[in-house]
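Note to self: the last two entries modelled the partners one at a time, which told us nothing about the interface. This time every component goes in together.
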Amino acid sequence: MSRLSRLTVTDVARHYGRRKALSQISFTCDAGEIVGLLGPNGAGKSTLLNILATLLAPSLGRVEYGSLTADAGAALRAQIGMLGHDLFLYPELTARENLSFFGHLYGLSDVAERVGSALDRANLASRADDQVGGFSRGMRQRVALERALLHDPKLILLDEPFTGLDQASTRALVDRLEDRQRAGCLIVLATHDLDVVDGLLTRALFLINGRQSMDPQSGGSLRERYQRAVSGA
Amino acid sequence: MNAFARIVWFVVKKDLTVEVRSLEILSTTMFFAVTVVLMFSFGLVVDGRPLNDVAAAILWVAIAFSGTLALGRTFERERHNDTLRALLLAPADRPALYVGKLLGILLLLGLVELVLVPLIGLLFNAPVIEQAVPLLLLVGAGTLGFAAVGTLFAAMLVRARSRDVLLPIMLYPMTVPVMIAGVRGTAALFQPTPDAAVAQFWLSLLAAFDVVFVILALWTFEPVMTD
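The predicted structure of the combined assembly is written out below.
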């Protein structure tokens, strides 16, 4: 079993001065799950993702990644793949150069081969040597997703992964996430595209004003549960 | 090549590739540095004779100002698409990321200085060719000290809203010793009778500053980059 088989978040809070971006967040999820972070703008979804990515230290509480904590440093970061709301790509570099650069940073041995496969999966092989700055938002999003998954991370963190994608690309992304789920990855994604992720998520975590809201599990679509959670907060 | 050197190499290669394609930092920094030197030369050179020690002071003012511009722009580029977070998320040695960024800035400033130093020689009748070797060592050591602190501060401030204001406020007081040593060492070389012993003294001091600043920056880069 992978060392990152379970993610345990215990009473996590994050404060910026007197402002509380997150308060008392607790949940546990296992490998093979797709967990949705749902909530209105400013609810703390991106802050929580940054904490899970070890880019931000919680003000209170604890995050455990299987047997590891954030103190594990590079050993833990090697198992995390993140797609941010900003895409973490250099617009002056080509798609191939972007992926190769990050492949080398992750110390991958077969970078050229992995990058070739990633570009094929992103359906961008014919534009591989074009600068990313000239791509549409959807194309950049596809390159960014492949960058996040290039090193086969065990924990995948996605912030608004469906932004800018057309219907076919959305379908391809859903298929890709299900494939990673079957491969035993743990996926946490923040999204407003409730209709797209309804049926994809194994669990939803509702965040309202930095606080965890109870999931009204019973009945209805994800959108209806979301609306009940928001109105009940 | 070991893992540390590999990361440094890939970061430098990436920064240079981006710069070669955009020429944004080199062109703005070069233009700014040349403009500073030209403006001072119009005011401070009378009948072809500059005031005492003015060439050394102007050289270091131009290096400091253009260096600040280059530092700001380099990290603004990393902030723009949040790529700094992607670098920090990679399981790479964070000091290696720092050294990679530092070398990229040093290469850019080196190119600017390749134009700046001959221009100072031309406009202020400074003996830059006769004193080429000690001048190269002084400018190299001073630029390293300035950039070592500047790279650390610019990376720290990348997420701060008022980073453009804070960078010079933090950087200049810290690098005053480097600037003083650079100006005094260069002035000793630009005397009618160059004083090699004085220049050597200030160069030794600069080398000591460099060692301290680089070690401190390598030591603190990881903790200061964790929010």
